């Protein structure tokens, strides 16, 4: 397994990041701007900046086929950025009609809609209105009782999953007449008018949900919550209780982001700064390991640390640290702070081979699975 | 009219859609209400086990039947019996006991419950003043939908407090070794308080 590819872009948190479909452009949310980096050789160079928001940007997403970039920010706005002929990016304001911060944004797979979660207990489903030539939104309101922390799309572009600080992960229909085609009936529902609630799930402790994700087929839903757990839901049939709800509590700090790498495997990352793998099926799930490689390298360090009591006390006395000569200001993980987002980097046939993570430490890391 | 300080008006109270006007308890996992009398019967049984010398069994029983649905008084009674169990178990027995508990079916849940009691115990100070200021603590954090573990910390620790604290702290140390920081986070995020 090749070592992860680390790009330390700057010393500021990365709230969200997104790669273009050819992986040559990387969009990174940094404070009030989105920075666009271009790959040159093994590194990424700053190429452009999308300025327009006047508060912290919370989400950025590049549509894989059209190349349009959507951004959401705490200033309650979302912009769709399109490249113009002279190479500049032209923003179009989206009418979100929300009175609190926008917290997250994601394009749907068909790329004609996107969903914006907000602190106003609303998900704005946005679509382009040809006759007025702007992006308008329809609100998913009920039964959200608190801030929406994450949104995720089903492959059919109609079902939308949302995690919220009220502890629930929900599945909604975001069917918009004239924009969407009628979806195939699935285990989530058959007739799906806008704002149909197809599922509402809670984990045992009702901790707030950080992230949600549909499996590649869309037949299962996973969400991670602030109680350090990952919950996987397998629906049975419309309006029926789910076939299985599996909750895995871990010994780690909570996960903030998760991703299905295949139908039977999940990758999670969060406050523990590392990337962890889970695998299982509707019969049960468990934590199977981490992507961090240096667990073996850290051992010699530990032995060295206990090498002699004299050195230890001398070091404690002189330098105020407990390890003798060991640099204990660095974490053993690749990321040196919490990981905010996890994205698929390379996938083929429903199998993700590479993922990318962006964290509070200003690093974007590409991992091989 | 002119004297109204507009900034102090709670606008959420005027908005019918606001979560301020919404009962948040409907969002939390359903807990069975438990009467104080039931808690007392249970604590009686646990004390019997404890007198019989089966401290680990008593602790296990107490954790398995944590009265999430009891009122403040019932919860305080259960806390004091859990504290008694913890006090009875010797330092050397802690780790093997926890290991057995964690490995068993549903063990991680039990460990999380124990962690809740440790934090609750530490937030209360000693066992005896708990009963004295039980009245003062009746401003239940439950009513505000907050976390009871975070509220009501007794900083004016009394003389005997150190002893009780050291028991809680050594349990805490042993427990964290086993279940990691995940369990601490669960205590903070769990709506089912002890």
TrEMBL record, chain B:
Pfam families: P16-Arc
The entry's keywords: Cytoplasm, Cytoskeleton
GO annotation, biological process: Arp2/3 complex-mediated actin nucleation; regulation of actin filament polymerization
Superkingdom classification of source: Eukaryota
Main location: cytoplasm
Keyword Ribosomal protein found: no
Location(s) in or outside the cell: Cytoplasm, Cytoskeleton
InterPro entries xrefs: ARPC5 (IPR006789), ARPC5_sf (IPR036743)
One GO cellular component, as annotated: Arp2/3 protein complex
Gene3D superfamilies the UniProt entry points to: Actin-related protein 2/3 complex subunit 5
Family per similarity comment: Belongs to the ARPC5 family.
Its biological purpose: Functions as component of the Arp2/3 complex which is involved in regulation of actin polymerization and together with an activating nucleation-promoting factor (NPF) mediates the formation of branched actin networks. Arp2/3 complex plays a critical role in the control of cell morphogenesis via the modulation of cell polarity development.
Protein name (record): Actin-related protein 2/3 complex subunit 5
Organism: Meristemomyces frigidus
């Amino acid at each position: 397994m090749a070592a992860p590819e680390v790009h330390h872009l700057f010393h500021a948190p990365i709230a969200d990041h997104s790669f273009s479909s050819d992986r040559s452009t990387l969009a990174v949310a940094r404070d009030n701007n989105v920075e666009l980096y271009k790959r040159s050789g093994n590194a990424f160079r700053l190429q452009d900046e999308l300025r327009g928001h006047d508060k912290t940007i919370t989400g950025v997403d590049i549509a894989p086929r059209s190349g349009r970039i959507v951004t959401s920010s705490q200033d309650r706005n979302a912009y769709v950025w399109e490249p113009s002929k002279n190479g500049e990016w032209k923003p179009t304001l989206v009418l979100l009609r929300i009175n609190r911060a926008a917290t997250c944004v994601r394009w749907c797979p068909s790329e004609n809609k996107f969903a914006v979660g907000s602190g106003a207990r609303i998900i704005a489903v946005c679509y382009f209105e040809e006759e007025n030539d702007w992006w308008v939104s329809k609100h998913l309101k009920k039964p959200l009782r608190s801030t929406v922390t994450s949104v995720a799309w089903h492959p059919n572009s109609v079902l939308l999953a949302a995690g919220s600080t009220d502890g629930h992960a929900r599945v909604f229909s975001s069917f918009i007449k004239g924009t969407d085609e009628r979806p195939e009936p699935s285990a989530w529902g058959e007739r799906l008018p806008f704002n149909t609630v197809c599922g509402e799930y809670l984990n045992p402790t009702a901790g707030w949900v950080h992230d949600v994700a549909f499996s590649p087929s869309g037949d299962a839903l996973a969400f991670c919550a602030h109680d350090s757990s990952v919950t996987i839901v397998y629906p049975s049939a419309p309006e029926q209780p789910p076939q299985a709800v599996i909750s895995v509590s871990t010994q780690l700090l909570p996960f903030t982001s998760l991703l299905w790498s295949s139908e039977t495997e999940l990758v999670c990352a969060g406050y523990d700064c590392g990337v962890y793998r889970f695998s299982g099926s509707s019969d049960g799930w468990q934590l199977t390991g981490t992507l961090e490689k240096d667990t073996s390298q850290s051992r010699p360090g530990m032995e060295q640390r206990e090498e002699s009591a004299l050195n230890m006390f001398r070091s404690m006395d002189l330098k105020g640290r407990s390890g003798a000569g060991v640099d204990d200001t660095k974490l053993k993980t690749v990321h040196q702070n919490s990981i905010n987002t996890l994205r698929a980097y390379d996938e083929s046939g429903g199998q993700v081979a590479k993922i990318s993570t962006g964290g509070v430490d200003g690093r974007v890391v590409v991992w091989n699975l | 009219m002119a004297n109204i300080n507009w900034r102090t008006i709670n606008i959420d109270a005027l908005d019918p859609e606001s979560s301020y006007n919404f009962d948040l308890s409907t969002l939390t996992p359903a807990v069975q209400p438990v009467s104080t009398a039931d808690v007392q019967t249970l604590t009686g049984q646990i004390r019997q086990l404890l007198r019989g010398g089966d401290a680990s069994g008593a602790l296990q029983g107490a954790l398995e039947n944590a009265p999430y649905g009891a009122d403040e008084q019932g919860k305080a009674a259960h806390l004091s019996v859990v504290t008694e169990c913890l006090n009875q178990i010797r330092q050397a027995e802690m780790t093997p006991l926890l290991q057995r508990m964690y490995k068993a079916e549903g063990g991680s849940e039990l460990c999380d419950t124990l962690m809740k009691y440790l934090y609750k115990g530490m937030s209360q100070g000693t066992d005896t003043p708990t009963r004295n200021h039980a009245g003062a603590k009746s401003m239940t954090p439950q009513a505000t939908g907050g976390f009871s573990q975070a509220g009501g910390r007794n900083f004016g620790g009394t003389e005997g407090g150190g002893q009780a604290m050291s028991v809680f702290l050594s349990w805490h140390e042993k427990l964290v070794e086993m279940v990691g920081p995940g369990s601490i986070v669960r205590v903070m995020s769990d709506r089912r308080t002890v």
